[in-house]
């Protein structure tokens, strides 16, 4: 990163892109009080060093995915054969080595029944796997790196929309002129289509920090039990600004991911979490090493949503 810019300013620039991967450098520069050329340099350096991935994340509904589950996987013996197999599976969006009773945690997104059952059966047969604890997502309330909604998107997409999404897959910050050339539309027409896809929850353009193989990046998986109706807890939990939050069925009432810039910040956030009224039980596990993190990043759209 550019040495004459403080680390805090660099983090603020990259955090702005995590929320909106197409945010203009001029807008970010104004917010963080840096010259535009320094903002551009910070971003370009992070991308070149593979510290930041600018990409389009596609609604699960557009990819034909209907069910979502969080898995905690116990392994006897070496972990890497099972972990490598999980990384290679199309159904997994997240895989990490974790500390605690379970050796690996993973998120799976699958199609209609019996796809989930077949996926779990496959995982149970992986080398060394002795147990899988499954928690189903009922709804996704916060998802920093993907369109929020687990329900089917109400949009119907056509070939022009698909062309825009495919082009964003290769260049998430493409201009509207470039998107128009890719889709056969005028720049204004491409902008209208892009805005419609964005507002409808079909896509989200994000800057994902590249954490694969980076053990120093502090993130925690969290499972919560509630002593009040879960709807009452959702706004209290979202106020903590988790990276991910899902209402769940199974082992926990909520599954969350908490991330921070330091272990000290994680401790403070967990203390606040434990103090929230209605949180009856907190279980957490450290993601020691993230092996896969891929949320709806695909240039393949197998279905038309409607």
Task: Quickly list its features.
single chain, 306 residues, alpha+beta, Arc Repressor Mutant, subunit A, Alpha-Beta Plaits, 3 domains, 8-stranded antiparallel beta barrel, two-stranded antiparallel ribbon, 10 helices, 35% helix, globular
At CATH level 2, the architecture of the largest domain is 2-Layer Sandwich
Shape: globular
Rounded to the nearest angstrom, the distance between the terminal CA atoms is: 44 Å
Strand percentage, roughly?
Answer: 25-35%
Number of domains: 3
Radius of gyration, in angstroms, nearest whole number: 20 Å
SSE run: HHHEEHEEHEHHHEEHEEHE
| The CATH top-level class label of the largest domain | Alpha Beta
Report the structural category.
alpha+beta
Number of strands: 10
CATH topology of the largest domain, anyone? Alpha-Beta Plaits
Question: How would you state the average pLDDT, rounded?
Answer: 89
What is the compact description of this entry?
This protein has helices at residues 7-19, 25-32, 36-48, 80-88, 115-124, 159-170, 176-183, 187-199, 230-238, 263-274; strands at residues 52-58, 67-75, 92-98, 104-110, 129-143, 203-209, 219-226, 244-250, 254-259, 279-293.
């Amino acid at each position: 990163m550019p040495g004459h810019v403080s680390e805090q300013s660099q983090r603020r620039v990259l955090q702005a892109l995590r929320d909106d991967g197409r945010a203009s450098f001029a807008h970010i520069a104004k917010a963080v009080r840096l010259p535009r050329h320094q903002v551009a340099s910070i971003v370009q350096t992070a991308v070149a060093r593979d510290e930041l991935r600018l990409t389009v994340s596609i609604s699960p509904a557009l990819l034909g995915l209907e069910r979502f589950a969080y898995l905690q996987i116990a392994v006897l013996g070496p972990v890497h054969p099972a972990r490598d197999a999980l990384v290679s599976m199309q159904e997994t969006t997240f895989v990490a080595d974790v500390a605690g009773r379970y050796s690996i945690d993973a998120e799976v997104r699958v199609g209609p029944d019996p796809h989930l059952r077949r996926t779990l059966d496959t995982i149970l047969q992986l080398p060394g796997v002795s147990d899988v604890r499954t928690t189903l997502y009922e709804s996704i309330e916060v998802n920093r790196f993907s369109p929020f909604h687990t329900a089917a998107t109400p949009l119907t997409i056509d070939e022009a929309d698909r062309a825009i999404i495919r082009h964003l897959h290769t260049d998430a910050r493409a201009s509207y002129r470039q998107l128009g050339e890719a889709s056969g539309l005028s720049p204004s027409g491409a902008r209208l289509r892009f805005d419609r896809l964005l507002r409808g929850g079909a896509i989200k353009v994000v800057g994902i920090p590249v954490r694969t193989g980076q053990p120093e990046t502090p993130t925690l998986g969290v499972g919560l039990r509630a002593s009040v109706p879960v709807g009452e807890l959702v706004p209290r939990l979202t106020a903590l600004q988790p990276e991910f939050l899902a209402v769940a069925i199974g082992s926990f009432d909520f599954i969350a991911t908490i991330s921070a810039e330091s272990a000290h910040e994680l401790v403070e956030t967990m203390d606040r979490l434990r103090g929230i009224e209605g949180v009856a039980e907190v279980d957490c596990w450290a993601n020691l090493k993230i092996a896969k993190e891929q949320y709806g990043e695909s240039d393949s759209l197998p279905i038309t949503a409607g």
